[in-house]
C-alpha cells in the first residue's frame, strides 16, 4: 500500500504561522529556528520579526524571559532540540513556568531518534516523563504532520504551559484534515482491509464515539509509533487473523483515562509503544489502568520503547530497527502476548 510522507515539524510551522496573526503570540529560538520551523512564524510576515527573539544557546534564560512576557499576557512559544528545551532549563520550567501556570508553550523539536546521525547527545528520549510529572503542564505527542498542526493550535488555546513533541525526519501521513481531533481525547484506529493507499485501509474515530468490536489486542501508542502500530495491525490481521484496537494518544497530558481503562477492561491484552525510554509513556498508561481497571478482569501487558539505553548515530529508520520499534517488532511482541493469553486460558 502507498503512503505519503511529511515531517511533523512542517505541521508545527503551518500552525505557528497561522497563530502569528494573534498579536499576543511571541516566539523565542535558542540558536536554531528554521530547522525546527520556528522561523515560519515570520518568514512570510516580516512585520512579525519584532515578535521573534533569538536567545542564543541559553535555554534557561529563554524560559525566564518567556515567563516574564507570559506574566504580562503574552502567549510565548520557545523552541529548540527537545533534549535541550526540556532538559537544560528543567528547573526554570518547573519553578518559574509551571509553578506560576504561565502561558509558555514548548516546541519540543527533533524529539526521539528522528535526529538520527546527530547521536545520543541530541536525541531526546526522556522528556515525556520529565514533563509529565510537572503540575499544570500539558503534553501533545502527535502522530503525523497534520495532527501536529492541530495539536499546536490546541496547545496554544489551553491556559497554562504546554509541550508539543515533534520530529525532524519525515514520517507517514496517517490522518487527514477531516480526521476527528479533540485535545485530551484519544483516537481509536481500526484496520478495515487492504487498500491502494495505506491511510484508506483504516477507520479513525474519537474514543468517545467508539463501540466494542471484540478485538483480541489493543496497542496504545503516541507520536511516530502510531504509524508503526498501524503497520503492526496490518501484519497481525493479514498473517494471524488478530483483530487490534489502536489508541492514538496524541494528548499525553491530560491523558484520556476513560479510553485506556475501557481498552483494558474490554480487550485485556495491552501493548504500549513509544519512541522514548521504555516505560515513560508505558508506565503512565499502566498507572491509569492500575487505578481504574476492574479487579476481576484479567490483563496482560507489554511495553515497547528504547530499552534503557542512550541513542546512537544512524539514519532514523536504522535506529528504529536497532531499538526494536518497527511495525514488525510490535507485531512480533503482540503475537507473543496473544499466544501467552491463549496458553494461560487453556
Verbal overview:
Helix 1 (8-19) runs parallel beside helix 6 (145-157) and helix 2 (59-71) runs parallel beside helix 4. Helix content is 35%, strand content 21%. The chain has a 7-stranded mixed sheet with strand order 3-2-4-5-7-6-13. Strands 10-9-12-11-14-15 form a 6-stranded mixed sheet, with helices on both faces. A two-stranded antiparallel ribbon has the order 1-8. It is of the alpha/beta class and 346 residues long. It has 2 domains: 5-172, Thiamin diphosphate (ThDP)-binding fold, Pyr/PP domains (Rossmann fold), CATH 3.40.50; 187-345, 3-Layer(aba) Sandwich (Rossmann fold). Strand 14 (269-277), helix 9 (280-292) and strand 15 form a beta-alpha-beta unit.
Q: Main attributes?
A:
11 helices; 346 residues; alpha/beta; Rossmann fold; 6-stranded mixed beta sheet; single chain; 15 strands; 2 domains
CATH third-tier fold name of the largest domain? Rossmann fold
User: What is the H/E string?
Assistant: EHEEHEHHEHEHEEEEEHEEHEHEHH
Spatial order of the strands forming the largest sheet: 3-2-4-5-7-6-13
At the first level of CATH, the class of the largest domain is: Alpha Beta
General shape: globular
Helix percent reads: 25-40%
Strand content: 15-25%
Gross CATH architecture of the largest domain: 3-Layer(aba) Sandwich
Organism: Aerophobetes bacterium
Family: Belongs to the transketolase family.
Cofactor: thiamine diphosphate
InterPro entries: PDH/Transketolase, THDP-binding, Transketo_C/PFOR_II, Transketolase-like_Pyr-bd, Transketolase_C
